Amino acid sequence: MEELVNLFHGFAVALQPFNIMVMILGIVLGVIIGVLPGLGGANGVAILLPLTFSMPPTSAIIMLSCIYWGALFGGAITSILFNIPGEPWSVATTFDGYPMAQKGKAGEALTAAFTSSFVGALFAVVMITLVAPLVASFALRFGPAEKFAVYFLAFCSFVGLSKEPPFKTIAAMMIGFALAAVGLDSITGQLRLTFGSTELLNGFDFLIAVIGLFGIGEILLTMEEGLAFRGGKAKIDLRVVLQTWKEMPKYWVTSLRSCLIGCWMGVTPAGATPASFMSYGIAKRVSKNGKNFGKGEIEGVVAPETAAHAAGTAALLPMLSLGVPGSPTAAVLLGGLLIWGLQPGPMLFVEQKEFVWGLIASMYLGNLVGLIVVLTCVPIFAAILRVPFSIIAPLILVLCAIGAYSVHSSTFDVVLMLVFGVVGYLLKKCNYPLAPLVLAIVLGDKAEEAFRQSLLGSQGSLGVFFSNSLVGTIMVLGLIALFWSAIQEGYSRLRPHSVA
Amino acid sequence: MKHSVLHTALAAIAIFGAGNMSASAAWEPVRPVEFIVPAGTGGGADQMARTIQGIVTKHSLMKQPMVVINKSGGAGGEGFLDVKGSGNNPHKIIITLSNLFTTPLATGIPFNWKDMTPVAMLALDEFVLWVNAEKPYTTVKDYVAAVKQAPAGGMKMGGTGSKQEDQIITVALEKAIGTKFTYIPYKGGGEVAVQLVGNHVDSTVNNPIEAVAQWRGGKLRPLCVFDGKQMTYDEVVADGKGWKDIPTCKSQGLDIEYLMLRGIFMSPKATKDQVEYYVELFKKVRATPEWQDFMKSGAFNTTFLTGAEYAKWVETEEKRHEALMKEAGFLAAP
Q1: Residue A214 near residue A85, CB atoms below 8 Å
Q2: What is the pLDDT of residues A353-366, one digit of tens each?
Q3: Of the candidates B47, B108, B163, which has its C-beta nearest A335's C-beta?
Q4: Cα–Cα nearest to B72, from A407, A452, A442
Q5: If you measure CA to CA, which chain A residue comes closest to B208?
């Protein structure tokens, strides 16, 4: 009850005219940041952080968190229209979003993506409002072994998803792991696979790989097919929003499951990217339409977007209550809190009520404002596809190059992006799936780190992954997901016998 | 003909430029200044750099903007090599942490602090020995007794990074106590503190700013500070205790002192005027109330050094790190 009273105080704070102004400004900036591949929410917030230094802390965090929401919304736009994920967590959105756009259903895909984002975020905020302290203590139970189990589950829920032969999936994944291993080994402090080159000190950044593999690779493929851009028939009408909304309640199960996955991943904190992959993978397994995933199924957009947004929102909870950021953007926001003289941690909820509840209220309002802003722009975004490819392709190329450069302000990365583009084209031509490769680059080094930290702690015993009920359960779930198709096959083989 | 015109033009520019330089008394940036952070976003060095950027912007201390850029690759090696290769570009400064010494020693990348020009030491960051507040030991003596009782490697020490400051202190602790810890490296200091709250490790040597929130929340307990003298901040933090009430480790029988440099360097061929400009800039930053609040929130040691004194301090520290790391077996294979 006290929470509700606090929340209404929070709304009063967030609804001050100045705060509403910064909220809208933040959302618009965030969408732009999200659309530009490579810039990313974390970089965007970091760049704008000093500007908020002279604002009151509550307005400052409202503006920065709205940039974050905006970026979460914006990341989906380029994924769906051009197959270029603006943000890491929108990679999984490309799997079905882009095929939908190619079928002329870009408006539907965008509406579904934005609406699911909103649903996911709303679910996570309600959770933060009601059970914040409980969730915070759950997050404390996650040590290295538990974290590894979560990554393991993310990988397993993705193995065998592809229509390609398993060996091709494994080969692609292994290339991803190898690329993820380049750079500094954080456990021993040694450089690995850099061959004395200073450019490789940083390893292969996931964003550069993705921009190249997906964005440039896609442009090369389209060029080969005679510069025909297949999204031309896209309807540009606001009615498309209402039609899609009518269709969406059908997927409430997927939606709810994705919300739960997202909240869990955001709190633990594994982040929005594994959440979106895991949610897509599980939806494909469980859904009736599973076999159509990848061909432009609306459910394949709903699942990753809901989970990514739920995770992105839930990631703020461990930041506020424990001082541990659940995502790179949350890490930058954490720095902001300290600069404004607020100490995140268990006492923040007690000592800085106005700030905390103002922020939580702004999550409700910010997401609502964001949804309205992006939905009204759906026809404009969809109309971009009507521009002839010969005009839009150079623009995309420039956008990709700027994106790749802005990740580390390095021209080497732009070259690297082009190399990845050619690799992406070749892999696609040879029917190697790109998703496992990307997944391995994103989570490979984190999974390795958690694995080795666990083994350091257990003095080398693998038993640590089954040492308590929490980690054991997650590992078993992972193993079930890994052998799911085998189990299914076995089950269907057994069934005729039992009937007969 | 064309050439001579060009030459005359160049000469004119050169003369004009030189005249301009001598006319204005001091050097000032004419382009945006890049402020390199050789670490990731959200860490201690990053927070400090962004605080400085905010102070400079808010108080209009510079005519040109200051841009913070993270170059964290290879434990910060990427950032250091960038400044090393920047020649006489005076629009590039870098904030350092102990990886100024540890990264080249542990990874063997071709870099030494002498490849840059020292500007100023802004502050020193303290290290405190922390345990979970649920644990029975309330003094260093109890803790040491518990560590000695556990089998070698049975106690887990969490820290930031590998072969960096936290692990160096851990090795020094092992030597002082006469046992072995299992050292578990994590990516960031905040994560380390939370792992201690969750009892996934047994102790840490977090910086004050990384663990203060958990101390105030009653989850962690400070045992001693790795400094020659006690901290001076007397504001109460938790249980009626403040930073100044934490005893030094030395007074508790652990003869270890370790402070981390938070200092500024710039391009190798910077002129005296240019260094002087930044020294003055940081003096102004230090005078602002925001900076003082920041120092207090992180319980920093506010020693400020410039010029030869600063260079000498860095040189002594470099030797010390080399000795410590050699002893621990952390040096890169030649």
Answers
A1: yes
A2: 888 888 888 889 88
A3: B47
A4: A407
A5: A343
Partner-chain contact A184 B71, CB within 8 Å = no
Chain B residues close to A324, C-beta within 8 Å: 190-191, 194
Q: Do B73 and A201 touch (CB under 8 A)?
A: yes
Is the CB of A141 less than 8 angstroms away from the CB of B198?
Answer: yes
Closest CB to A347: pick one of B68, B70, B213.
Answer: B213
Query: Is the distance from CB of A303 to CB of A254 less than 8 angstroms?
Result: yes
From B46, which residue of chain A is nearest by alpha-carbon distance?
Answer: A335
For residues B137 and B131, is the Cβ–Cβ distance under 8 A? Answer: yes
Q: Which residues of B touch A50 (CB under 8 A)?
A: 50, 53-54, 57, 68
C-alpha to C-alpha distances, A468 to A145, A275, B135, nearest whole angstrom: 10, 23, 21
**Minimal CA separation from A486 to chain B, in Å:** 36
Instruction: Give B156's contacts in chain A (Cβ within 8 Å).
Output: 457
Q: What is the DSSP string of A127-143?
A: HHHHHHHHHHHHHHT--
A229: number of Cβ within 10 Å: 18
List domains and CATH numbers for chain B. Answer: 33-125+260-328 (3.40.190.150), 128-252 (3.40.190.10)
Report the complex ipTM. Answer: 0.82
C-alpha R_g of chain B: 23
- Which residue carries 């919304």 as its tokens? A73
Rounded to two decimals, the pTM is 0.85
Work out the end-to-end distance of chain B between its first and last CA atoms, rounded to an integer number of angstroms: 56
What letters, b where the CB count within 10 A reaches 16 and e where it falls short, cover A18-49? ebbebbbebbbbbbebbbbbbbbbbbbbbbbb
Sheet holding B260-266, edge to edge: B66-70, B33-37, B92-96, B260-266, B117-125, B305-306
Measured between beta carbons, the chain A residues lying within 8 angstroms of B297 are 338, 341, 343
Alpha-carbon distance B304 to B310, whole Å?
9
Q: Do A408 and B73 touch (CB under 8 A)?
A: yes
Integer Cα distance of B229 and B246 in angstroms: 10
**Chain A residue closest to B70 (CA)?**
A408
CA distance A371 to A367: 6
Query: Does the distance separating the beta carbons of A198 and B77 come in below 8 Å?
Result: yes
| CB-count burial class (<10 Å; 0-12, 13-18, 19+) for A54 | exposed
CA distance A307 to B161: 31
Cis peptide before A496 (omega within 30 of 0): no
Residues B153-198 have pLDDT tens digits of 889 999 998 999 999 999 999 999 999 999 999 988 888 988 999 9
Which residues in chain B have Cβ-Cβ distances shorter than 8 Å to A456? 182-184
Task: Give A-chain residues touching B51 at CB under 8 angstroms.
Answer: 339
Per-residue pLDDT of B27-39, as tens digits, reads 999 999 999 999 8
Tokens for B156, please give them: 């887990």
Q: By the 8 A CB rule, do A343 and A333 touch?
A: no
Which of B54, B185, B214 faces A339 most closely, judged by CB atoms?
Answer: B54
- Judged by DSSP in three states, B34 sits in strand
State how beta strands B155-160 and B203-204 pair.
parallel
